[in-house]
Automatic annotation (TrEMBL):
UniProt name for this protein: S-adenosylmethionine:tRNA ribosyltransferase-isomerase
Enzyme Commission number(s) of this protein: 2.4.99.17
Keywords: Cytoplasm, Glycosyltransferase, Queuosine biosynthesis, S-adenosyl-L-methionine, Transferase
Catalyzed reactions: 7-aminomethyl-7-carbaguanosine(34) in tRNA + S-adenosyl-L-methionine = epoxyqueuosine(34) in tRNA + adenine + L-methionine + 2 H(+)
Family affiliation: Belongs to the QueA family.
Length: 349
């Protein structure tokens, strides 16, 4: 598989800038992976495709306000800092991406807040774009985090071509988000409303929760044509015993296992054992899933319609079959489905 195999023309107006009014009323295309048959539904119709003891596997990561703007010392130049993850709590070290990167060097200080009360010093250039910042703050860690997040904004993607708004703090997050650490939302999960979850519960469907802290790795541009030469960034993930028991029970009963999002697909394929059961796991995954990767565990996948050349599209194609998924995308453009994190859903079953 080559990068160019995942090219398609996406009209700009099909990129969703805002979510639907109700979470479960996005459109949903249903792709039957064995036949290539396509159906057009609403997301709340999902319930019609699952039965008692079928298992939904969700990502309960929580997005934090990762985009923060500061000013460079002396020049006062505006610098965007995208917080990736905290490296050291005691020293207040953070792995970040800065923009414009060319203006920031080791030793530079950045000032945040209207009064510049929060200061950070650049102490390392880890990559051409990445930096390590040390925040110079004397208070305790909880106070520091509160201040940092107060200045931060919801990290909606740049392709939305707008700034974060108050509504995004709630909508760029699933209703079951719990464990903080993601810098972008697991988009498939935001279609689930409390009402839909209740209806699935009444139908005796099972819910299992894994934690995968979505990084920017799945959203980076791939710069090689040969996909086997692309190196994925690692994402931190946690699979506990309770989740394993719920998933494996449904598996042993011959019931459907539905991965809610590509981050869950990657996590399940990382934690699956040779006997096709999920095992406990705590660590990192840099698994890159693209055709003709053989999927071992989930029977169904919920994902959004994603960008051309994107890793998320490649994962969907590995799950649903390259030809079927690319045809579904062609239909999605023709039928004017909405693309991106706030876009419409694709159920591959």
């Amino acid at each position: 598989m080559k990068l160019s195999n995942f090219k398609f023309t996406l009209p700009k107006e099909l990129i969703a800038k805002y979510p639907t009014h109700y979470r479960d009323e996005s459109r949903m295309m249903v792709l039957h992976k064995d036949t290539g048959k396509i159906e057009h539904k609403l997301f709340k119709d999902l319930i019609d495709y699952f039965d008692k003891d079928d298992c939904f596997v969700f990502n309960d990561t929580k997005v934090f306000p990762a985009r923060i703007y500061g000013k460079k010392e002396k020049t006062g130049a505006k610098i965007e800092v995208f917080l990736l993850r905290e490296l050291n709590e005691q020293q207040k070290l953070w792995d970040v991406v800065v923009d414009p990167a060319r203006k920031i060097r080791i030793g530079n200080k950045l000032y945040f807040g209207d009064d510049g009360s929060l200061v950070a010093e650049v102490i390392d250039n880890t990559t051409s774009r990445g930096r390590t910042l040390r925040f110079l703050y004397d208070g305790d860690h909880d106070e520091f985090k509160k201040l940092l997040y107060e200045y931060g904004q919801t990290p909606i993607p740049k392709y939305m071509e707008r700034g974060a708004e108050p509504e995004d703090a709630e909508r760029f997050q699933s209703i079951f988000a719990k464990n903080e650490g993601a810098v972008t939302v697991p988009a498939a999960s935001i279609h689930f409303s409390r009402e839909l979850m209740k209806r699935l519960e009444i139908k005796d469907c099972r819910f299992a929760f894994l934690t995968v802290h979505n990084s920017m790795g799945s959203y980076r541009d791939i710069d090689v044509e040969d996909l086997s030469k692309h190196k994925m960034e690692s994402e931190q993930m946690f699979v506990n015993r309770e989740a394993c028991d719920i998933i494996n029970r449904s598996q042993d009963m011959g019931k459907k296992i539905c991965a809610v999002g590509t981050s869950i697909l990657r996590a399940m394929e990382t934690a699956v054992s040779t006997d096709n059961h999920i095992k406990e796991y705590e660590g990192w995954t840099n698994l890159f899933i693209f055709p003709p990767f053989k999927i071992h565990m989930p029977d169904a996948l919920i994902t959004n319609f994603n960008m051309p050349h994107s890793i998320l599209l490649m994962m969907a194609a590995a799950f649903g079959g390259y030809e079927h998924v690319m045809e579904a995308y062609k239909v999605a453009v023709k039928e004017r489905y909405r693309f991106g994190a706030y876009g419409d859903a694709l159920l591959i079953i």
